[in-house]
Amino acid sequence: MLQSQQVERSVYPMMTLDDWMKKSGLSESQVGKKLGVSPLTVNRYRRIQRTPKPDIMDKIEKMTGGKVTRAAWLGLRRQQRQARRKQARLRDRGWLIDRQQFATDIRKKRARDAMTFRELEEALCLDKAVLHRAETGGRLSDDNFAVLLNWLGEPASVYLKMYRE
Length: 165
Known about the structure:
Order of helices and strands: HHHHHHEHHHHE
Structural class: mainly alpha
CATH architecture of the largest domain: Orthogonal Bundle
Helix content: 55-70%
Number of strands: 2
Strand order of the largest sheet: 1-2
Distance between the termini: 40 Å
Number of domains: 2
Radius of gyration: 18 Å
Largest sheet: 2 strands, antiparallel
CATH class of the largest domain: Mainly Alpha
Number of helices: 10
């Protein structure tokens, strides 16, 4: 592992609220009650669609025993911004991912390997919703795209196409 990756992992721990909830087996309702927020808000925190207020971040850190920290939230938000910028740069350069071809190849490989959705979910440590989006041609995060690319054994260049409006 490169030294910069070691530093980044120590500054931004890899455990997210979603990871912690899956590990602990708590539902969004249970976590919401502990934090004093609705289950819908917890769902948005899990999917990183909303960043908790500082007092809620403190409650999350305390509830998780320090495994989900304020630094983790900041790191995740930073990664999201970088991914959006990268997608915009690709679009500006004229390249986009051919999501339909990517989805077709995922379905074919899963059928060829005779894997159920659950088996693939466990093998790749991806959420069922992510796999559904991938197989239907939906948008994926850079990280999820990379995991699926690795599983397919294809270089990213196979799925790049020229961007046209």
